Amino acid sequence: MPQVPAIQDLRARVAAGLLEQQDASVLARQFSLSVEAIVSAMAADLGDAALLALGGLARRQLAPYADVDLLIIVEATATARIAPALAALWDAGLKVSHSVRTSTQLQADIDDDPMLSTAMMEARPLGGSDKLLQEAAAIRRSARSSRARWRAS
Hints:
By secondary structure, the chain is of the alpha+beta class. It has helices spanning 7-19, 24-43, 55-59, 82-91, 103-112, 114-121, 130-152, and strands spanning 49-53, 68-74, 96-101, 124-128. Helix 2 (24-43) runs antiparallel to helix 4 (82-91) and helix 5 crosses helix 6. It is globular.
């Protein structure tokens, strides 16, 4: 993984901006874009996997000390590279919350879990396998129909 700016430095920039009464939403977006660049670099280290941002990172509203929520979609046997890639993010100073699923597991979980379905509606791809990113996009579209089904019941 390429050398990245220290997360503490990025957080310090946000703090300085707040002290200068800069727009907090602009600061959060700038911080999010910096963190996104760091996390996106990780996608190349994952091999045959896809990386999606969830939560504040997906919305580009990440607070300086918030968890970085990630979804990693893998082929059934492609998990060996995940731990070192995540360790690099932790070493960089990020607090990472992640989930690792196959496309099949993700589809089944979305059908049963309204919280996951909601998270997938705002998920944003960060990189990785084109095939798995396309599958994730299809699953994301299906999350909308799952939500409609829950409202009807």
